[in-house]
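Morning. Coffee machine broken again, so started the prediction first thing and wrote up yesterday's gels while waiting. Chain of 321 residues, entered below exactly as on the submission form.
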Amino acid sequence: MLRFLGAAGQCPAGVQHAIPGFASWQLATVPRFLVADDVERLIASCPADAAGLRDKAVLLLLGRLGLRASEVAGLRFADVDWTQGLLTVSGKSRRQERLPLPQEVGDALLCYLRRSRPPLRTPGVFISVVTPLRPLTRAGVTHIVRAALRRAGSKAPINGAHVLRHSAITAMLTTHVDPYLSLRQGLGFKLSNAVRHLHAFAGFASARGDTHIVASTAVDWATAALSPNARHNRLRDVVHLARFLHAEDRAHEVPPPALFPAPQVRPLPYIYTLGKLAQIIEAAGRLRQTYPLRHEVYATLLGLIAATAARPRLTASAPKS
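Came back before lunch.
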């Protein structure tokens, strides 16, 4: 067995160059959400008994609307507008939001209220299923998610209710990103870097709990790039997406596009004097004669470029006489 460490515990000279490197992709992160199939298995794992009906309604609120565990535990009857199909949620900083209530979530709530909820006089929607009966707490919501993960056999990156919030928000943002990319690719744009950038941005924004594009989140994500050029490219791609989405939904914020200006990569032009141009054209007449009129062709092309300022690509594609 070879020993690489010396007496002092240090590598001998030159051995460090034999240690292979490893890939460290700049935008690669461990996903902190469940894919759609795992979320569906989680919801389907709920049994049809009293506890299962409650757990299914809880999981749907977390997985479809991206609610926090505290928001689900604090849900009251007065927060549900059955006529308008809206749900009022009290989030952080006591900020209230009105969210659309999907049919699937509403059906699960009604099924729980009619068939499973104990007749406890409390304004809270969700109640514990074991005595003593009391309103469901945030810890109780987390316990429901962990039990569902065990039943479904899913290995979640976050062992708690927040994994479903991340999953829902990531799905929402990806739903915005994918149609935009498909539309632009259908118009002929390759967008190889934009696809990678926007999906990475969607994961970054979902980790912050953003359901729409937030300018400060986009700036923070772009700032994390290592070079000025990378920061410019990141923010540029998000700005294009934000403008596209803002046209239909004003909740999407458009970041300031000039925050990271494009770096100057165009070299300074070199201006030849008339004497130098004459020397270049004269030198073309001394090229090796590999085919007839080679001297005349190159001298004429160089003279045409110098006289008209035409680009070489346009000159080369000129029709043949």
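Strands lie at 80-81, 86-90, 96-100. Going to sketch it on the whiteboard this afternoon.
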